């Protein structure tokens, strides 16, 4: 990447050398790049918004599918005893049918005569009536039982088919949700590819973008809202708080403008938030000082500063956009220090020297 940038730079220089009579060529080229940068940032924001929107949609689908799955489980739980009741009822019915069949066969084989003769063998008309009534009751009882049995079975069957229908409907709903989910996943993949292309373009034109950002910063044009809270800039332990402390040399309380983090030489320093590096260079006392602009909050500028790295440990330069958590430098012992550490400051305000603010107000340390 760097090699190709050098190529671009040298091509530009050659162009300038060959065509020195075109005084507006550089300005025009710059305008095009600026326009491209703006378009690029807009496009990137659109894609990022779209991806965020898709993520939200996907999450809601996942929630929906999970909810439906739970409902189906609940329905199946309710359907299980119904199925059992149905099976038992069918078994009982079978047993009952067998008994009935036997009885019918008995009547058929000896029944009519035997039965008639039994009736005829009655000693009296009273006994005859009694026998007849008994027989009638047995038959009536049998038919009633059969009917009732069938009614129960029918009822359970109906109940079961209602549950089956419900499960089928829910399954259809799940299928539809999954289809919609897959469609969004496909779209999201497309947009993620677009984002890759945009980021590749950004990387290729990193130097141009940095230059424009820096110019905009100097002209007061670089403005965006602060997007907090911040992230811890180091994995090292907090060794000194922001606030007044007795200075070992001056023997009086002096405001410590930042928070110090240990961790040893070479441990990584991270950007506390999204922003643009507005300066990165040697600074007396600080050794090396990186300043990141994080945007505006309530009409005031928010900055963070990172001190004491050695020049070869610094990974960013002025004008570069950085993301929260991005590795921007390593811990060194450059400047006015007794040992290696990160001196980290939050500056909040307007003008040349905005006052320092307790980092604890901006992040959990
Ligand atoms: Zn410090």
Could you characterize the architecture of this molecule?
It comes from Shimazuella alba. This is Peptidoglycan DD-metalloendopeptidase family protein. InterPro entries: Cell_wall_metabolism_enzyme (IPR050570), Dup_hybrid_motif (IPR011055), M23ase_b-sheet_dom (IPR016047), PcsB_CC (IPR057309). Keywords: Coiled coil, Hydrolase, Metal-binding, Metalloprotease, Protease, Signal, Zinc. This protein is of the alpha+beta class and 365 residues long. It has 2 domains: 1-204, Helix Hairpins (Orthogonal Bundle), CATH 1.10.287; 223-361, Glucose Permease (Domain IIA), CATH 2.70.70.10. Helices cover 56% and strands 17% of the residues. The chain has helices at residues 2-18, 25-120, 125-204, 206-218; strands at residues 238-240, 243-246, 253-256, 259-261, 268-270, 275-283, 287-297, 300-307, 321-322, 327-330, 342-349, 356-357. The strands form 3 sheets. Strands 1, 4, 6, 7, 8, 9, 11 and 12 form an 8-stranded antiparallel beta sheet that branches. Strands 2-3 form a two-stranded antiparallel sheet. Strands 5-10 form a two-stranded antiparallel ribbon. Strand 7 and strand 8 form a beta hairpin. Zinc ion (ZN) binds at residues 240, 256, 258, 260, 343.
